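INTERNAL TRANSFER SHEET
From: sequence group
To: structure group
Subject: Rieske 2Fe-2S domain-containing protein

Please process the attached sequence and return the structure record in the designated field. Keep the field labels unchanged so the import script can parse them.
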Amino acid sequence: MADPEFILNAWHVGALSHEVEAEALFPRRLLDRPVLFYRRERDGTPVAMLDRCPHRFAFLSKGRRSGDDIECIYHGLRFGPDGRCTRSPYQDSPPPGAAVEIFPVVERHRMIWIWMGDPAQADPATIPDHSHMDREDMRPLLWHVQFAGNWQLGNDNLMELSHLFWLHTSSIGGWKPDAGATPGEVYSARSADGKVFSRTLVPDITRPGVFDNNIPAGQAYDQWTATVWEAPANMRVTMGAVPAGDDPASLRQPYMEQTHCITPETAGSSHYFSGFTRTFELDRDAEGDRRFVEFFRGIFEREDGPMMEDIELQMASHDLFAHHPLVLPRDRGAVLARRMVAQRLAGEQAARGNAQPEPALAG
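Return from structure group:
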């Protein structure tokens, strides 16, 4: 039976393009199912199949390749990229009906997207737009980390970015206010067309975090952030710093566009795929880019990840609202995302004949 905590009929990031190398077998647990990724020999097109031989349930990823077929290491059965058994060492022809499950995959924006629900509903046109990752002139960088927490905690964390001034004070947070509110801060969040849009403007600060090295020292700047979220857990974040009083829409340097995608590993652990493009420090060499990645990966591993893991331990269930949390004004975007996820989960459960009342979705 499908896990009620996962949205199945959606595109999830299964791997970064560079993780699935030619000739390699790449296993990863997604939505609590074992998945094997590999690439076809002829054109490198990715394939994703259930990482389980239907005979004695061995991991196919521990086997070997024979062209585009995967040979099980246990008894030598082979399976093609369409999932069908192509060879059995014990019979003249493959056993009738012998096959492994194949998942629709699309490689786009330097990521491999996988659909683990009804294949008939897998429309590539609905893959979230992270096209900024295709812009070579903005030096795209991507990385993957994991954390021991439910995937919706990642939504909560990324849809409420005021924590930058507190959790990330020593890294990218910028100026930490002495009072409980940032003076003059403007925040808004709304839902439309199945997405959540939020925007934050923190005016007149002299230390705008990640942009410290790229603006004149001592000059007042407005730091702004615009986020677009879509289910299950895909976020595009544009962040920049402009001279105080300037128009953020002008996209004056410096600014960065970020990709944040979270895919469940299990109900209590998650994959986090993140990256960004930028308009500053474009003269960095490969080693400089590597240090950039390690800097941001380290922030997550030292700060965000442990925080979400602590919260996971505090919650008896993954239904945040069942715990009656205190809701602050800056939580609106995260709350809207939670409600939309709940609506999607309820809809899929109803379609599977396990109907539950759909939660109301406030605009």
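Handover comment: Residues 192 and 363 are 8 Å apart (CA to CA). The domain at 129-351 is CATH 3.90.380.10 (Naphthalene 1,2-dioxygenase Alpha Subunit; Chain A, domain 1).
Transfer complete.
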